[in-house]
Amino acid sequence: MEITIIHKSEQDVHFLVEGVDVSFANALRRTMLTRLPAMAIDEVLILENTSVMYDEMLAQRLGLIPLTTDLESYNLPQDCDCEGKGCSLCQCTLTLEVEAGDEEVVVYSRDLSSEDPKVNPATGEIPLVKLAPHQHVIIEAYARLGTGSENAKFQPVATVAYKYVPVVSVDKKKCDQCGACVEVCPKQILKLDGKTISTQNTLDCSLCEACMKECEPGAISIESKPDSFLFKVESTGALPPEAIVETAAEILKDRIGVALDFANSL
Amino acid sequence: MEPKLIENNRYELKFEIGGEKHAFPNLLRKTLLEEESVEFAGYIIEHPLLSNPVFTIRTKRRQCNTVLRDALEKMLARTEEFRKKFEQSIADHSVE
Ligand SMILES: [Zn+2]
What we know:
The complex is a heterodimer.
Chain A: E1 2-8, E2 12-18, H1 22-34, E3 38-49, H2 55-63, E4 92-99, E5 105-108, E6 113-114, E7 127-131, E8 136-146, E9 157-170, H3 180-184, E10 190-193, E11 196-199, H4 210-214, E12 220-235, H5 241-264
Antiparallel strand pairs in A: 1-2, 2-12, 3-8, 4-6, 4-8, 5-7, 9-12, 10-11
Chain B: E1 2-9, E2 12-18, H1 23-33, E3 38-44, E4 54-59, H2 64-95
Antiparallel strand pairs in B: 1-2, 2-4, 3-4
The complex binds zinc ion.
């Protein structure tokens, strides 16, 4: 098994895994998507809402705000000593209090103030509701850990996807150097130097096969490697992207561990 | 993940995996089929929303439970290898 990091930033990580099969890649992807816990607002107490937006809609919008998550200091409610009633070990309170003056005001996610500095909206730029002059909202919201299998708002990942590694090859005997494939390729994979077509940045290839349709039959072939996968993991901001992959691998290991205990008991 | 035994003869094993969908049973199936003594490995989810996957293994020569244990150990080792190598590549990447 070989892993190469292609690109890493604060929000996302692209990496290449070689020497695993589809079922492993998929198990890993599904674990990141549905098993990895993240914080989200789950209960909302609306003390005052004179805006035109219904309480339910406002609560829905609050629930979908990605919150930075600290997996060390919080428990999943079902694993907590309080048995899911809600305590400081499994719940975090955020408050929102905004009143418009003589001008209209847009309430943003940055207006939420959290009791725990580690649990905060991942970005402050999310508009929640627009207030007309003198309207106001006073809200208390309770965030907790949850998993994507329960509700998609708990997913720490925006995108987690893999694709096969493209292998683009040009048959020099069949190619008539017309250059049409260079024009049609949306990712600029193919280029024409002098009289030969060559390939560049083949990892960017989206396997659209537009070049194959444009070309002489059989001159360009696009295949994929059977055991290599290009992963793209994009975080919502809840967790750093590399932590998402590492924690997901741990969770997958825990699940296999439970199954192994069962196999040993037979 | 709550496995529950349904049937266990020497060469045929049937168990239900509570709280799982396709990802885990599929990984287990693929890993089991790498082993030569496995004659059949598969699972069924009777209803996509209401039922848990029921996994069946049929083997020849080797006993089912040992084959299952070996496959799970293989899966565990691979996942651990992935985690270690990923951590290492991330560390190397940040240095660059
Ligand atoms: Zn609690």
